Amino acid sequence: MNILIVGVGGQGTLLASRILGNLAAVSGYDCKLNEVHGMAQRGGSVVTHVKMADKVFSPVIAEGDADFILGFEILEAFRYRHFLKKGGTIIVNIQEIMPMPVVIGAAEYPKNLAEILKSENNAAAVDAYSLALSAGNVKTVNTVILGYFAKKAGIPYADMEKALGLSVKPKLLDINKTALKYGYALD
Length: 187
Prior knowledge:
Pyruvate-ferredoxin Oxidoreductase, domain 3, 8 helices
């Protein structure tokens, strides 16, 4: 399974990839990760490639080869949609985080991205930010998306919860478990 995780710095894309790496270990699969950092500490683009299989030789997902794209920010999911394979699925948080060119007035944030993604692909747009807020911490957007991904991919909840426990600091585990449940409960 090839999973591309996209977002901006501070949204937990790297933690999400580690959770998926632990999920692969829990499930008995080989896993390779490749992290591409932009201006991550300044809200720039962050992309993580996650490959799981009986044996993985390369961590890099080619364009048109991702089974899933997990978008923690909608413009980032839109920018990387060409990585999705035919029949693949995009799961995207509808949150808009303004990139620097938009903040300084040099560009406009594109409109109707969720509708475009849904018209072009098998895409599910969710308000993961609100669910993360309800879970107790907006920084759990990544965990909400991972919960929804697990449900869509047919991954048992118990396996995801175990991978989460192996990846998250104990003091943040309960909030993340709540966020995971919220994501898994989405239709």
